Amino acid sequence: MKFYQRIVAVISTSLIAFVLFSFGQAPLMEGYNPVKPDVDTQYSEKFDEAKFRTIQNGMDTAEVISLIGMPMSRQRLGDTMTLWYYTCDGKCEWADFAWLGRVIYVAESGRVSSTAMPVCHD
Hints:
The protein is an alpha+beta fold. It has helices at residues 3-25, 49-52, 61-68, and strands at residues 41-43, 73-77, 81-85, 87-89, 99-100, 103-107, 112-116, 119-120. A hairpin with a 3-residue loop joins strand 2 and strand 3 (81-85). The longest helix has 23 residues, at 3-25.
């Protein structure tokens, strides 16, 4: 093999390895993990997925707290709504996957307005 052919072979191999490595990492960057969807999801202390799914619109927040505990955090939306977050990102230490959001919308009345279960890619 001639010298320039070796150079082209080395550069081509290096470029292919770089592309494969780069695209191979893409699923690990906020990608959804179908095998273990909650791999990067942190849950509040008393959270239970089955119990979360039983929460109904109109429930009092005291009922919610007795069912699944206190939220990890809260966020005020204007004057009439507060979001209660029962999950957050960052459980997985070796990669950054999408995580499962579990949110309760609480109206000013102190009653559940709705719930949300998004897959979060952030």
